Amino acid sequence: MSSEAELLLQGGTLVDVVDGGLRAADIALVGGRIGAILPPGSPLQARRTLDCTGLLVSPGFVDIHTHSDLSRLVYEGQESRITQGITTEIVGNCGMTPAPLVGTAERTREVIGPVDVVDAGRWEWTDARSWLDTLERSPGATHVGALIGHGTLRAAVAHDASATSVDRRDLIGAVRRALDAGCLGVSLGLMYAPGQAADPEELRAVAEAVRTADALLAVHLRSYSEGGVFDAVDEALGLAESTGVRLQLSHLRMIGDDVGRYDDVLARIETARRSLDVAADAYPYLSGHTTLVQLLPSAMRAAGERACAVLPVAKIAEGLERSGFAPDAITVMKARATPEAVGRRPDPGDPWSWLAGLLKENDGAVDVAVVGSTEANLETAMRTPWISIASDGAALASTHTESAAHPRSWGTFPRAYRLMRTVGLTPAQALRRCTHDPAMRVGSRAVIEEGARADLVVFDEAALRDHATDAAPAAPATGIAHVVVGGQPVIEHAVQTAARPGRMIRRRSAGGR
């Protein structure tokens, strides 16, 4: 490297997440990229130096499954992302994106309930391309890439979120336009209306279009319960087998405590991986975060949130009770019309009627956190090398009040790293699943080598801890000293800076990088 370094990370231990090695090194950054990797103490002119003595230097964390579609437009500092070491996040998951518009922004918000956690103001887009352009123009502390949601596409093509069928040619045309605009793939939300209404032929046609574009198909399974997850996994694997599409199984978990069944699920996927390009992601928590209507039987929730809300209280309550969850496993996370209910668990006197009443008062737009997984299955996920770490959370600020944040929005990566180390993984093995592996799934790279994009996280392994809890979900992690995005520190000496170097990552064949 002949030119002067703009920033020198000095004295740290570089973690090579590809070959598993650790070595002392100084890292010189120039023009947003890694200009040189040098032996420690090498003489080099640098405008600025960050002391990394005693710290690990890793590629920045890549969160392949997030719901920051709207929130990153409001919270441009992405505090909940960068304070846990995330430098790139992928939005557009679970079949839900705010584009294309389903008639109006208000109607679109009905389709994407779990994504709708902020008032993003005036929506300046109508289709996938203009949504990506909006993301690209918006200042951000992290990079962002996007999938396009099959559910939203489906509703827009049909002009009706409750449609049971769509013109397949129109739908596939919309998929292709979104991929051509730079979306990294398509997400399916097979547990959510309207995506759950798609028949096998429609899903196969979508998968074919994704495979033709060499993009990624990410699937929120039709069921994660111990009674339904096997069929749901087989359905997704069938799409990969019949089309050759690259498949990502989103937040792969099992709801229930039947010992050994989750291992059987993973074994089935392991077998498929011998011939198919299949991987998964998971978050290190026992509770998920979804809409309350998802606890209703599939046939009842198929028409969407508002249709469920007009049902009699007794019918809704009966459907919720049939979910099999204990009332004390449920916490209300979003209920705009009844904010006093947010953070509460159901009334113990008549929990299901209380929840049904909330659903009606909020026109169906109620989010809940539900505890359903087991510690044993979580440890199994943390041991499984082809399961990347992903938060299923959102870019938020500590000032966020429109909904109750799930702790995973703030603490996923430090928590997962500690768990992976506890179950026996080396630093490089654990960090690979936070960096290189998820980046590769979306056609990107997260490595420390000369010429690579300078997205880095520098942390004290002994001090790295998550602190976000149900009671205090916006508590940032500790142990992270510096986070560098595009060569610029967004966290420096554990303090957020004003830098907003984030960039839009588009599919390479669509003009991305």
What features would you describe in this structure?
By secondary structure, the protein is an alpha/beta fold. The chain is built from 17 helices and 22 strands. The chain has helices at residues 71-74, 79-82, 105-111, 128-137, 150-158, 168-181, 200-212, 229-243, 261-272, 298-301, 305-309, 313-321, 351-361, 375-383, 408-422, 427-432, 436-441, and strands at 7-15, 22-30, 33-38, 49-51, 56-59, 61-63, 86-91, 143-146, 148-149, 185-189, 216-220, 246-249, 278-282, 287-291, 330-334, 367-371, 387-389, 456-459, 480-485, 488-492, 495-496, 504-505. Strands 1, 2, 3, 4, 5, 18, 19, 20 and 21 form a nine-stranded mixed beta sheet that branches. A six-stranded parallel beta sheet has the order 9-10-11-12-13-17. It has a four-stranded parallel beta sheet with strand order 6-7-8-22. Helix 7 (200-212) packs across helix 8 (229-243).
